[in-house]
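Person: I have long wanted to understand how a fold can be written as tokens. Underneath my words sits a plain record pairing an amino acid chain with its backbone structure tokens. Those tokens are not coordinates but codes from a learned vocabulary of shapes. I should like you to check that the lines agree and flag anything odd. The protein I mean follows directly.
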Amino acid sequence: MAQSAFKGAISAGVSRPATAAAQASTAGGGSGDVDLKRSVTIYGTVAYPSVAEVSPLDGKYQVAVIADPADPQLKKLEDLVLDQVQAKAGKRVFPPGWHNPVRDGDAKKPNGEPVFKHPAFNGKVVLRPKTSFKPSPVWGSKKVPCDPAEIEGGDQCYVAIGAFAFDISGSKGVGLSLNGLWLADKGTVKIERGGGGASFADVDTAGVRFLDDDQGVETTEA
């Protein structure tokens, strides 16, 4: 049976840094032997997942990954991102105006407000891989398939991530592709869009009959 792209990425050792010779070849316009389609697996906390259904923002399946900046896998991902920049721009430096997908969890908006408001992002690196194809996540040490809806914000996951350069309507940069999800542990703090904690203290319930009133449901007869 053929391996999935996700399991293949895990068993293949995740990534292969480019050699100096390959970098020189790419800088000269050739692809050398750099594997631009390789994946890097990052372990982190997922936030705001759109895994069971596409995000209404852009029609993609996606997660935000909150990663430890000390994780050595991040260096491999940064190498992959720079390989994409080099292949497109001819040098391993982001040209002015290009989008860098490796984000600082402490980043601020021009008005000084934090870009990422949840405290879980503080001091972390943020990645947002996406895909047009519905993910097929697995869970546990035996990598058992699980329903995409089981992936919730706050869960601890291994996320297989690829990178690609884009040039769309004048917008240029590098994006991240979501190549696989492996649920390792359920989170204790939910990181989802929408608080879900409203008190409803200001709601007028006069005349409203609730489902558990008198262990029944009031109906209106014609």
Observations:
- The longest strand covers residues 171-185.
- The radius of gyration is 22 Å.
- The mean pLDDT is 81.
